[in-house]
Design brief:
Strand order of the largest sheet: 9-8-4-1-2-3-10
Number of strands: 10
Strand content: 15-25%
Distance between the termini: 29 Å
Structural class: alpha/beta
Radius of gyration: 43 Å
Shape: elongated
Length: 334
């Protein structure tokens, strides 16, 4: 596989390149003196995903200041013999032992061009790229095109070993990275209701604020009174007949049809059931147990851009004036 982006690291700043036909486009650059470099890097990664929805897969471009460049003449054409000569030239040429270096070489016009870098510099560069979600797959350099016949390749990252399949590898490229223009972000499309927001817009402005809840409709005093005060029902004809006084007979005595006074009936218009009128008691609940606070055990994130290799002894300057990189990675014990 070939990474579709390249993350360039230097002591002046950080840049992101996008692979296009015929070369690379510059997506953006961030100075090391930026106020919030973490937020700027997040926005840069969001732009990359907007340019290529298939994902962000990057190669890390090691700065020239961290690479030892060498050149020597030879008439050898055998690859194993040239490799042995390269090891002889590098032994003692840097503050590092051979087992602590990764290098690459190429031959042009009878001259062997060598680029070497400390392995600890590669480790720091990979950690930085992973911390900011740039998914690094390999290490390369950008030397002068007149020196190297192909792109210096320092090997795959540890992340690539986990992300690639058992039969997948990062392909070495013959051409050195060449920037031919600036990247153009796609025009923002209208977002339909309920769709996810544009990642670039979210990175710049943050999530949109939640809309305020609509106020409840006002209730008039007449409606409130109508709901709380119900009119008493009119008595029926049957109830009126039962409660009316009987007609008196002759002589003022009660007649046969109404001689007895009717028994008084309890008035039920004002009460609805004494059981219903009693307040209900809620069963007692045990007090809620406060949730335990989860203790954070992860390390705090770094907000500054690590400068790969800056903590270590810098490699000597290239006497030949050439630029970076190296090819084969030295194994342990070499």
């Amino acid at each position: 596989m070939k990474p579709n982006f390249a993350l360039t690291l230097s002591f002046d700043g950080i840049g992101l390149l996008h692979r296009v036909q015929g070369g690379w486009h510059l997506v953006g650059e961030i100075g090391l003196d930026a106020g919030d470099i973490t937020a700027d890097l997040a926005e840069l990664a969001a732009k990359a995903r907007a340019l290529d929805p298939t994902g962000l897969r990057s190669k890390l471009v090691i700065p020239d200041e961290q690479i030892k460049y060498m050149a020597f003449e030879t008439a050898e054409r055998d690859v194993s013999r040239i490799e042995a000569l390269v090891r002889e030239q590098l032994d003692g040429a840097t503050p590092y032992a051979l087992r602590e270096l990764a290098w690459d070489w190429s031959v042009r016009g009878g001259i062997v061009h060598v680029a070497a870098v400390a392995r600890e510099t590669l480790k720091e560069a990979e950690e930085f790229a992973l911390e900011h979600n740039f998914n690094p797959y390999c290490f390369v350099a950008m030397p002068d095109e007149t020196a190297f016949a192909a792109e210096p390749f320092f090997g795959e990252t540890g992340y690539a070993a986990r992300a690639l399949g058992p039969d997948e590898t990062v392909e070495r490229e013959a051409e050195i990275i060449r920037v031919i223009g600036a990247a153009r972000l796609p025009e923002p499309q209208p977002v339909p209701p309920g769709a996810a927001p544009d990642p670039v817009a979210v990175a710049r402005t943050g999530p949109a604020p939640k809309p305020a809840a609509a106020p409840a409709p006002a209730t008039s005093a007449a409606e409130t009174a109508a709901r709380t005060i119900a009119p008493e029902p009119e008595p029926t004809a049957e109830e009126t007949a039962r409660t009316a006084p009987p007609k008196a007979g002759a002589g003022g005595r009660p007649g046969r049809d109404g001689g007895k006074k009717p028994k008084a009936r309890p008035d039920t218009a004002g009460t609805i059931g004494t059981d219903d009128a009693r307040p209900c008691r809620s069963p007692s609940r045990p007090p809620a147990t406060p949730a335990r606070r989860r203790r954070s055990t992860g390390p705090a994130g770094r907000n500054r851009c690590p400068r790969p290799g800056s903590r270590h002894h810098p490699l000597p300057e290239n006497a030949a004036g050439h630029r970076k990189e190296g090819r084969k990675i030295a194994g342990p014990g070499t």
